[in-house]
Amino acid sequence: MTADRPISLLFVLLGAATASWDVVGVDIAGRTLKLTTLAFLIGAVLRILDDRSVLRWSSTPPRYRVAIALAAALLMWMLVRSLFTPGIVGSFGGFASQLTPAAAPFIAVIWHHRHTGVIVRTFVYGMAASSVLAVYEFVARRSGWFWFTDYDGSIGDRPRSASFAFEAAYFAAPAVAALIIAIFWWRRGTVQAILIALLGVGIALADARIVAVQVVVAIVVLAVLALVMRGAHRARMLRSLAVMTVVGIAVVALASAVAPNTVARVGERIGSIFDPDEATSNSPRLEQNQMVAKVIRSHPIFGVGPGQLGAAFDARGYLRKPIDALDEAKFVTNNIWTQTLIDGGIIALVLQISFLIAIGARTRRDLSVEAAAVFAAWASLVFAAGLTVSNFWDTEPWLLLACYVALTGYSNPTHRASDDETPPSQTSTPTPGEPTLTPDHGTP
């Protein structure tokens, strides 16, 4: 590695490539320190040792300083809330499990903002590799071969692939995000076709219903951004959306002609998202949501504290069997909005919404197509997957958000769409005091 390519970047790239690998890591006090989190932490520490100036507030992108301050305020509130709970150890552990998976990738990427393009592409390549593993997992579980994890999710006798994620939906959500990026970051050709095919197969084998909602959210966000964008970027985005629509219709038509039963089954799966009587997922989730709502109503302002949902359930007699404090701390709502209300009450929810508004409010008309794709991928995780499978503090949303902030928060481009393209232009006027950067034109 060179001064332009510090060794810390290798660890950041490792973190980006393994962002969805929830089950690969080390156990610490009953919790898993994931490989991806560890890699980002090491990358951040090495970056500090290499250049301590990154610690200065002036090194953060001026455009997003308000948003970053709001995120820090939200985390500080969660820390304070965790220190004033009956189960302070479990609650502090819950706070730590929020802080590290989110802060590590965000800080590491911002401190390596000159290499954002490489980081984004590495995330997509990593998800494509995880899709290859998902294919092997599907074959292995059907054939009785060795597979690395104990995940056994299935629909009837058909296994659902999760790769190295906790479950299938947790793999499918970032795979969809990677698919969105792959469509806009690579020239149409063999590499892009392979990436889209691998990600598409992985998503299909995961068979997660929320994927349909996630795709709709991404398309809506891209359409809205196309209206905001201007010039060549707007024209390119509109053309891309038109092509995506035509290709999507053609694929559905072809699938309907070749495998009508499969298309009907997929339609039934999507339709069951809002069926309250669906037994495998919806019914238990709605039952838990009712219990969560009762806890929220009892503690609306301050919540019960991070990692305290299990203890709140136990105190109300909602649990069928006794559990220890460590297991109590692992209970989550699988919804970013209700989880925030549980952890920190209305105070935390106001800070969270303010943070999201601050991010969106800084969108400018000179947004590039590549940056728009990253923003749409991030939004699909927060506003779609976040309804059922994503925690607000998961690694993937904060990794993609950091990439978007790095792409749009500095005066010069810090990425290229692909290895054989010139950088897309960013014509924004530098904010006073904003650093001027040199684009990264290499490959890792």
Keywords, separated by commas or semicolons:
444 residues, mainly alpha, two-stranded antiparallel sheet, two-stranded antiparallel ribbon, 61% helix
- Major β-sheet annotation: 2 strands, antiparallel
Structural class: mainly alpha
What amount of the residues lies in strands? under 5%
Taking strands numbered 1, 2, ... along the chain, how are they ordered across the largest sheet? 1-2
> What is the first-to-last residue Cα distance?
9 Å
Residues in helix, %: 55-70%
Write the element-wise H/E pattern from the N-terminal end onward: HEEHHHHEEHHHHHHHHHHH
Question: Quick recap of the structure?
Answer:
The chain is mainly α. It is built from 16 helices and four strands. Helices cover 61% and strands 3% of the residues.
What does this structure look like?
The protein is mostly helical and 444 residues long. It has 16 helices and 4 strands. The protein has helices at residues 8-17, 35-50, 65-82, 88-110, 116-143, 168-185, 190-206, 210-228, 231-258, 260-271, 282-298, 309-315, 325-328, 336-361, 369-383, 395-408, and strands at 25-28, 31-34, 154-155, 158-159. A two-stranded antiparallel ribbon has the order 1-2. It has a two-stranded antiparallel sheet with strand order 3-4. The radius of gyration is 22 Å and the shape is globular.
